[in-house]
Amino acid sequence: MIRKAETIIGIIGGVLSLIFFGAFSVTIMSTDFETFEETLYPSLPNYETFTSSEQAYELMTEFSTWMGIFLFLMVIVLVFATLFIYRNGRPKIAGILYIVTGVLLLIGTQGIGFPFAFLFFVSAGLSFFRKIEGDKNDI
């Protein structure tokens, strides 16, 4: 028996995270300084708080680099969680991996990704507490 709910919710969370935060990371990393200064810098909230546009550009590229690294790690852990939950193999290990995936997303996005991390936490909760006929005792 396949645990469809956990699998679907986890995959939806992963796809949405990659679409929104992956696209943001790639966009910022591919933007040169001149384009950033002309288009993105004036649209930043409280852009006057930065000492210069160079500082803002450096911070944004650093942030998007770290976001990309954490998204990559998140996808790897999500793949393992999906493999463990598939066909009701090891739901408790998958639940732990879903929690790790959500935490990685929260760290990588500095809390901005909570709505998507919530989906991983829901998958983890279902993995731990939902009982299905034929559940294997694991861990």
Automatic annotation (TrEMBL):
Highest rank taxon of the organism: Bacteria
One Pfam family per UniProt: DUF4064
Keyword set includes Transmembrane helix: yes
Protein name per UniProt: DUF4064 domain-containing protein
Domain DUF4064: start-end pairs: 3-107
Transmembrane segments: 7-29, 63-85, 97-121
Keyword vocabulary terms for this entry: Membrane, Transmembrane, Transmembrane helix
